[in-house]
Amino acid sequence: MPDDVFRWVIAVAVIVACISIIIQAGVVVALYASIKKMQAKALPLMDRTGPLMDQGRQVLEQARGAAEHAVAIARTTRGIVEENRSKVSEIATDAVAIAHTVREQATHVGELVGLTADRAKVRVQQIDETVDSTVTHVEQVGDAVRDAVLNPVRKANGIAAGVKAAISSISQGRRRSAVEHATQDEEMFI
After folding, report:
1. CA 62, 63, 69, 75: dihedral to nearest 10 degrees?
2. Ramachandran angles phi, psi of 2, nearest 5°
3. Region of residue 173 (left: phi > 0; alpha: psi -120 to 50; beta: else)
4. Over the stretch 48-58, which tens digit does the pLDDT of each residue have?
5. Per-residue pLDDT tens over the stretch 15-69
6. What separation in angstroms does the CA of 123 have from each of 47, 75, 82, 114?
7. How many angstroms separate the CA atoms of 78 and 64, rounded?
8. CA gyration radius for the chain?
9. Which of 71, 81, 93, 133 could form a disulfide with 88 if both were Cys (CB 3.0 to 4.6 A apart)?
């Protein structure tokens, strides 16, 4: 291949590579923007679950305070029980009701925390699936761009080889022997 043709081929290849890099940079920027959008959508969810967790903690603290209060009541009740045996059964019933309420509140808070965790897991899974889908699309775009760039280059190389062979054949005419002709044809396909 003559040096001029080789230089043109190299120049075209460098230009194609530059265009490919620019396109890839654009795809990366688009991917970054879509990830930022997904993050912006996930942050309000996190902001909404935070107050629920705080409320759950407050309920637990209130339940703990109620339990501590019930314990304190039970201690002071012993002294009163000895003085007022008739009212002991009523106070015991109230203490049982308070303990039952505390258990119900603790169970309710546990359920709220479980639901919040489940919702957060679902959102994270959705975000993960969206990111995976975006990466797959970016790979497909990269493959399509590569094929779109390389196919015309291959065709141009084939056309250039055909034109060169035709010019060579016309310029040399019938002076060559069949062996020389076969060798040059083989070199073109290698």
Report:
1. -160
2. -65, 155
3. left
4. 777 777 777 88
5. 999 999 999 999 999 999 998 888 888 777 777 777 777 777 888 788 888 878 8
6. 13, 48, 59, 14
7. 21
8. 40
9. 81
Pull the structure tokens for residue 118.
Answer: 């489940």
Are 105 and 59 in contact by the 8 Å Cβ rule? The answer is: yes
**Angle of helix 85-172 relative to helix 3-83, nearest 10 degrees?**
180
The dihedral through the CA atoms of 91, 93, 95, 101 has a sign that is: negative
Using CA atoms, how far apart are residues 167 and 49, in angstroms rounded to an integer? 76
Q: How close are the terminal C-alpha atoms of the chain, in Å?
A: 13
pLDDT at 185 over 60: no
Per-residue pLDDT, 16: 92
Percent of the chain's residues with pLDDT above 90: 12
